[in-house]
Amino acid sequence: MVLGYLLARAGVQTVVLEKHKDFLRDFRGDTVHPSTLEVMAELGLLDEFLKLPHQQVRQLQGQIGESRVTVADFAHIPTRCKFIALMPQWHFLNFLAERAEQLPAFRLITEAEVTDVIWENGRVVGVKAKTFEIRASLVVGADGRHSTVRARAGLQVEDLGSAIDVLWMRLSRRPEDSAESLAYFNYGRVFVTLDRGDYWQCAFVIRKGELDDLRAKGIEGLRAQIVRITPMFGNRVQELESWDDIKLLTVRVDRLREWWRPGLLCIGDAAHAMSPLGGVGINLAVQDAVAAANLLAEPLRRGVYTGDDLNAVQCRRMFPTRFTQGLQVLAQERFIGAVLASGVSLRPPWQVQLFNRMKWLQRIPARVVGVGVRPEHVRTEPVALETRHTTRRGQAGGAVTNGAANEHAASSDVWVRRTSSE
Ligand SMILES: Cc1cc2nc3c(=O)[nH]c(=O)nc-3n(C[C@H](O)[C@H](O)[C@H](O)COP(=O)(O)OP(=O)(O)OC[C@H]3O[C@@H](n4cnc5c(N)ncnc54)[C@H](O)[C@@H]3O)c2cc1C
Q1: Which atom of ligand 1 is nearest the CA belonging to 149?
Q2: Which atom, in ligand 1's list, is nearest to the CA of 247?
Q3: Does residue 291 line the site of ligand 1, with CB under 6 A?
Q4: CATH number of the domain at 2-160+252-418, please?
Q5: Which of 37, 40, 52, 127 has minimal CB crowding within 10 Å?
Q6: Which residues pair with 247 in a beta bridge?
């Protein structure tokens, strides 16, 4: 959606295909980091965006055993917003979709599940959805961690492995509760509570494959473990009535070796699924979109782009991806893994105590999590109003399969063809 918006804003005819009829999905990435808020500011959308209901996280804090520690403080990061905004992802996507639909070059088609890519002469020239085909000069696979586009294009995935999975759930928030979002570490468990206004969004971290054992002990077993780590939930843990109230996030950390083929580019989770540690998945996806728009909007507008242009996007974004995934895997193995294996009451390790005591050190993780490496800035210009008025659908160029297809540039050969009467 971000790439669709940026391309259409730059005058590139763009179609976004989304398989669902809306963006309403619970427990999907809800952390909008300072780097993404900076992008919204550069687009002139920040003030309106921040009017949407959200909560702000200004520090990353944990409770290790009996000790409360702060490991990151966003107060000093070089962005306008010194906080993570917690906001349901559908609000973020709807907000963008509403603005994008005001652009003549943008079109969103919902209930449009892409089932295959169309090849011609060794090049991807479009996608097949259930009831139509769409041709485009560029197809962008932005269809998430189970990407159909990347599978159908035969792109190879490098699996970095993950020893954890996460159970997501919600518990009500009461007026007497403290306001902080916290990560609790104790008794071999990690439990994260995110303040979402009238409820807590909670993540219960488990060892990969442990779910069956937990289920065998019944929902009461899970409730007891939650209360053991966070006694304050003793008076409401019954809200978790059954396993239907628990959503499993199977954690994957992977990335494509090559992000592109002639006529096709993958970005976001389709190019690299991230661990939930640091909640950076959305933000890397957004940064990919900004980089792709910066590098491709002009060639697409001119109607000429090459494999080198697509490769430039991969080259630019591979380092931040590798770096971030490297840190996540390290933290999963060394820290989370050690906590899950311990089973006893914990005390903060010396490294954490150091960060807690030396406030200036907290700027480092704040910067890594909040801004990341190689932050992207919007370099594309909005098309002039008169240009926009003369742009007709089908004249300029890409498809994003939520996935984006950019309708073919300049040569007016974007077309959508119905393939059944459904
Ligand atoms: C349970 C859960 C919790 C998470 N929590 C966080 C968090 O707190 N913070 C964070 O930063 N990240 C989190 N993530 C990860 C985050 O959601 C992703 O990293 C981020 O959304 C990636 O964006 P994306 O656009 O690449 O893919 P997605 O957000 O997955 O979007 C892909 C889109 O493509 C659509 N689609 C899929 N297949 C097709 C198809 N064949 N045809 C058409 N459309 C298709 C999907 O419906 C979806 O709308 C979480 C993920 C999960 C699953």
Answers
A1: 41
A2: 1
A3: no
A4: 3.50.50.60
A5: 52
A6: 168
Q: Which residues, listed in sequence order, are joined to residue 193 by a DSSP beta bridge?
A: 182, 202
Q: Which pLDDT tens digit goes with each residue over 258-278?
A: 999 999 999 999 999 999 999
Burial class (CB in 10 A: 0-12, 13-18, 19+), 348: buried
Cα(403) to ligand 1 centroid in Å equals 11
User: Ligand 1 in contact with 397 (CB < 6 A)?
Assistant: no
Q: 187: closest CA among 331, 333, 66, 346?
A: 346
- pLDDT for 343 equals 78
pLDDT, average across residues 307-312: 97
pLDDT at residue 420, rounded to an integer: 47
* Phi, psi dihedrals of residue 381, rounded to the nearest 5°: -100, 145
**With bands split at pLDDT 50, 70 and 90, how would you rate the model's confidence at 413?**
very low
Give the ligand 1 atom nearest the CA of 268.
26
Let me know: does 377 contact 42? Beta carbons within 8 Å: yes
Q: Given the structure tokens 């742009």, which residue do they identify?
A: 391
Q: Is 151 in the pocket of ligand 1 (CB under 6 A)?
A: no
Dihedral, 92, 97, 99, 105 alpha carbons, nearest 10: 150
What gap in Å lies between CA 95 and CA 29, rounded to an integer? Answer: 16
Which residue, judged by its Cα, is nearest atom 17 of ligand 1?
29
Q: Say yes or no: CB of residue 27 within 6 Å of ligand 1.
A: yes
Out of 30-44, 200-214, 328-342, 375-389, least confident range = 375-389
Atom 30 of ligand 1: nearest residue by CA position: 144
pLDDT of 287: 98
Count Cβ atoms below 10 Å from residue 309 Cβ, excluding itself.
18
Q: Judge whether residue 40 has pLDDT over 60.
A: yes
**pTM assigned to the model:** 0.91
Distances (CA, A) of 379 to 16, 93, 315, 321: 21, 21, 18, 21
